[in-house]
Write a structure and sequence with these properties.
alpha+beta; 3-stranded mixed β-sheet; 10 helices
Length: about 220
């Protein structure tokens, strides 16, 4: 996405500022973490729901049946390419998931700048993903997020995601810094969560965060 923005003549740092304002970046390239935060926010929204959408699930199946269903979805999708799955099952839940997430993730103005028109968006709206490198990369990313969701609902104790708020003190227990430069600071604070963390019972997968100086210390 960032490479497409650069190629299209967008000001990457101005765009990053609209996503995460007033962040001090140790390197110019670190602005890409703001976009990774944005992508994760969209892709993982609804992760705590069985239907993986903002709408409540209408399923009345038992927990055992649900676990079996999620396991079947996981085993069916894991060995195949995302595009192959969409071609063979264009009306599947995974297909709807990919369509909905793409339309939310890629703004029409962004797509207009990337592709000079909205043909890709129009195709995706009816469930068709053109064979472009951008769409292929998106579909493979969506597949991994979908598989993770299925796996979480296969467990006896459902996995949950978490992130930390801006301004929190850094903790090596719950967090991992995506920029080593920030760890040299005496009291680094969280500027934003880049990738959420996961909890499964007492097991913990750290969230990835960008640490930054406070506005007072920058001045």
């Amino acid at each position: 996405m960032v490479e497409q923005m650069k190629f299209s003549g967008w000001d990457v740092h101005t765009a990053a500022e609209t996503i995460q304002p007033e962040v001090f970046y140790y390197k110019q390239d670190h602005a890409c973490f703001a976009f990774e935060h944005f992508v994760c926010k969209i892709m993982f929204e609804g992760f705590h729901l069985p239907c993986f959408t903002s709408e409540p699930s209408s399923s009345s199946s038992s927990r055992k049946t649900s676990k079996e269903t999620f396991f079947e979805r996981f085993t069916e999708l894991r060995p195949v390419k995302a595009r192959e799955c969409l071609t063979s099952r264009p009306k599947s839940r995974f297909s709807r998931f990919c369509r909905d997430k793409y339309l939310r993730l890629v703004h029409p103005k962004m797509e207009q700048a990337f592709f000079r028109d909205l043909r890709v968006r129009n195709q995706v709206s009816v469930g068709e993903f053109p064979e472009t490198s951008f769409c292929t990369a998106f579909l493979e990313m969506a597949k991994r997020v979908w598989l993770l969701h299925c796996l979480a609902y296969c467990l006896d104790v459902k996995a949950s995601i978490f992130q930390v708020a801006k301004g929190c003190r850094f903790s090596e227990v719950y967090m991992k810094s995506v920029a080593e430069e920030s760890l040299s600071e005496s009291e680094p604070r969280v500027a934003f969560t880049v990738v959420p963390g996961f909890r499964v019972r007492n097991a913990l997968v750290q969230c990835e965060v960008y640490l930054s100086l406070s506005s007072q210390r920058r001045t």
